[in-house]
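Practice problem: predict the structure.
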Amino acid sequence: MSINARVSKDAASEARAAAENILALALDRNFGETHGGLAVVAALQGRRAEAEVAIRRAQGLNAQGLSGAFAQMLLGRDVHHPEKLAEEVHALVAQQQAPFGGSVADLIQKINLP
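Answer:
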């Protein structure tokens, strides 16, 4: 895959994620994970101030939310090194609590997600 094709694919993925989060926000403005998702998209696009606002809103609504924590992690990391970022994401997920007890990592393992 060429660099241009990858950049185009990444931009399309980010645009789709932003659109889905905006729709979710329209459905429920008080769902912290939606604000966290918007923060992730903003962080990946380099819109730091917008990401920080969305992170604060996400954490205010759900202090244990994974998407807000992930966005906060992205702001302080070099997203151009996917291997290192993947390790940090796995560590972050391992720390998060699942909605019905246990960790998110345990939940993912139980349902066999990669």
